[in-house]
Amino acid sequence: MSSLGKRVWRFILALLGSSMLLLAHSDALATLDARTVAQKPLSLTTHFAVLEDPEGVLTLADVQTPEWGSRFEPVTVPGSALSYGFTRSAYWFRLAIDNPGELPLERLIEISNYALSEIAFFQPQADGSYLESKTGSLWPFATRLYAHRFPVFPIPLPTQSSKVYYFRIQAHDGLVVPAQMWLPEVFDAHARTDYMLQAWYFGMATAMVLFNLLLFVVLREIRYLLYVASVGFMALSIFAFNGLAHEFLWPRATRWSDVAHFIGWSFTGSAVLLFLRKMLDTQMVMPRFDRMMKPLVGLYMVMAVGLSISFEAFAAPSVIANVLGLIFCICVGVVGALKRQRTAYIFLIAFFIMLIGGIVTVLRGLGVLPDNFITANGLQVGSALEMVLLALALADRFNQIRKEKADAQRDALQAQQRMVDSLQTSERLLEQRVTERTLELSAAIDQLKQTQTELVQSAKLASLGSLVAGISHELNTPIGVVVTVASTLDHSMNSLRESVKSGEMRKSTLTQFLEDTTQAAQLLVRSANRAAKLIASFKEVAVDQTSENRRVFDLGTTISDNIEALRPSFRHQPWLINVDIPTGISCDSYPGPLLHVISNLVQNAALHAFAERESGTVTITARVSGQNAEITCADDGNGMPPSVLGHIFEPFYTTRLGQGGSGLGLSVSMNIVTGVLGGTLIAQSEEGQGTRFILKFPLVAPKHAKKLPSDQVFEGRNLDLPAH
Fold this sequence. Notes:
The structure is a single chain. By secondary structure, this protein is α+β, with helices and mostly antiparallel strands. The protein has helices at 3-30, 60-63, 66-69, 184-219, 222-241, 244-248, 255-279, 282-285, 287-309, 311-338, 342-365, 373-376, 378-502, 507-546, 555-566, 591-609, 642-645, 665-677; strands at 31-33, 42-43, 49-53, 73-74, 82-83, 90-99, 105-111, 118-124, 130-135, 152-157, 161-170, 176-177, 179-182, 551-554, 576-580, 586-589, 617-625, 628-635, 680-685, 691-698, 718-721. It has four domains: 21-182, Immunoglobulin-like (Sandwich), CATH 2.60.40; 193-404, Rhopdopsin 7-helix transmembrane proteins (Up-down Bundle); 440-546, Orthogonal Bundle (Helix Hairpins), CATH 1.10.287; 547-721, Heat Shock Protein 90, CATH 3.30.565.10. Strand 19 and strand 20 form a beta hairpin.
C-alpha cells in the first residue's frame, strides 16, 4: 500500500474515532443524574436531544427506530429555554434520566410556558412500553397531571434505573420550551409563592378596575370607563397568557384557551389607544396622530376577528400589530411631552415601563435572560406600574381640569349669589302659596269625605226605598184578599140579619153561612200570616241594610232573606236569581253593609248584564276558604270589554248614564268591602261570557277597618282589590 493510501486510511480512522468520541460525549451530556437536582430548579435545555417533525406525522415508534433516533440532535448551547419561533412543525424532545442511587426518587418537570398548544408526554413503564399523556392549551385543564397553571409532569424513578422520556410539542404561538426539573417539595413552595404573587397582581388590578368603575358611575366621565377597559382587558390578557384563565375561568375550553390572550391583547390595544386619545386630547393638540389612531383601532379589531377565524394565519401579524401599537403610543407620548403636556410625561414613562417589562419577559422566555423574580414576572411588574401611572395620569388630568374650572366657578358663584337672593324671595312667596293651597286641599278632602259618607247613606236609602216599593207591592195581595173577604162577610151578615128579622131563617141558610164564614176566616188567617211574614222579613232586612252594627249571623239565611225581599222588585224581569248557599256558615261581621253590597251587585246585573236580552240567570254561591267567607255573584249576561272592566270601580263611572245608572254602586261597594268588611272584591269578565264578582272577607271582621285610597286605579281583565 502506498504512503498516500496509508495517510488516507489513517485520516478515515481518525475521523471515525473522533465521531465515536463525540457521540459518546453527546450521550454523556444527554444523560441526567436525577440526584443532582437540589433546592434550585435544574434547567433541562442542555439535557434534551431534539428532533424536528416538519409534517407532524411521526409517532413514538417512528422516533425510536435507529433511522429517526440517530437524527436527534443534542442541545449544546446553554440557556433557560429552547426557542423555535412561529412554526407549524412538531418537535420531539428526548430526555435520559438516571437514578444510580439506592433510594427511589420523585422529580417534577415543569415547562413554564402556557401557550404550548399540545404536549404529548411519553413515560416508560416497567414492561418496556410507554404511557402517553396529552395536555396543553388545546386540551381541558383536567388533562394536567399536576394541577398548575403551567404543564408539570411527575417523574418517578426507581432505584438504580435509567429511563428515557419523550416529549412531542406543537404550538400555534411561538414555540418556546423553558423546561426545568424540581424537587417536589421545592416546587410546592415555589407554586405557593407564585400563586400568591399572581393573586397580589390581579387583586390590585381588580381594585383599580372597581374603584374607577365606581368613579365612572358617579361622575359619568368617559375617561374613567376607558381606563377601566384598558386595565381590565390588560389584566384579562395576562390572566389568560399566564395560564390562570385556563385553570379558573374556562377549564374545559380547548381552542379558545389557545387564542384568548391574543384576542385580549387586541382589545387592550384598542382601549389603550382610545384612553390615550381622550387623555391627551389628540384631536385638538395633535390632529395628525389622531387621524392615525382610528385606523389603528380598526386594525386591532380586524386582528381580533381574524384570530377567532384563523389563529395560525393571524398570530404573527397580531404580534407585529401589538408592537407597532406600543411604539405608536410612545411616539404620541413624546410629541405630547414636547408640547408641554404634563399628562404626556406620565404616559411616556408608563409605556416605556410596559415595553421594558414585555421585552424582559420575551428575553427570559427565549433563554437570553436568567430566570428570577423580575424576569419571570416582567410583564406583570411592567403592567402593574403602568396601571398605577395611568391612574396617576388620570388623577393629574382631572386635577388640571379642576383648576381650570376653579376660576370659572368663582365667577359663577358671584352670579349665583345674586340669584340666591332672588330665589329666596321667590321661595318665601312659593311657600306662602303652598300653605294656602294645602289648606284649601285639606278642606276639599274633608268635604269629599263628607260627600262620600252622604253618598253611601243616600245609596242605602235608595236601596231601602226600592225594597219598600217591592214589599208594598207584595203586601197588596194579602191585603186585597182581606178586604175582599171582609166585604163578602159583611154582605153575608147583612143577609143573615134580614132573614132573622123576617122570620125566614132556615137551618140550611144558617149552615151555609157558617161554612162560608169558616172558609173566609181561614182565608183571612192565611192572608194575615202572609202579610205578617212579609213585614217581619222586611223589618229584618231593613234593619240590617240601614244599620252598621256588628253581630253574629248565618250567612246563607241572611242573604236568602235579603234576596227574597228583593224578588218582588224584579218579578217582571226576564231573568232569575238563584241562591245556592249552605246554612251553617256563621259570620261575626256587619250584615247591613254586606247586604248592601249584595244588593248593589244584583242591581248592577239587572241594569247592565241583561240589557237587550230575553233571559238570564244570576247565581249567588258561597263557601268557606280558610278563615274567610267567599261569595260569588255570577251572571251569564253580556260581559264587559277590558276597556270597561278597568274602570268599573271608579266613582261616577257608568255606561248607562241617564238610564238608571249613577256610577256609584260598585264604587260604594268597594269602599264597604275594603273599609268595613276588611275584604277584597274581584271582578272577572269577558265580552259575551258574563261577569263574575268574587267577594272575600274574614268570617270574623277586623276591629279597625281601613279605607281604600280614593285614587286607586284598576286596570286589566282580572281586578284584585286588596284592603290597604
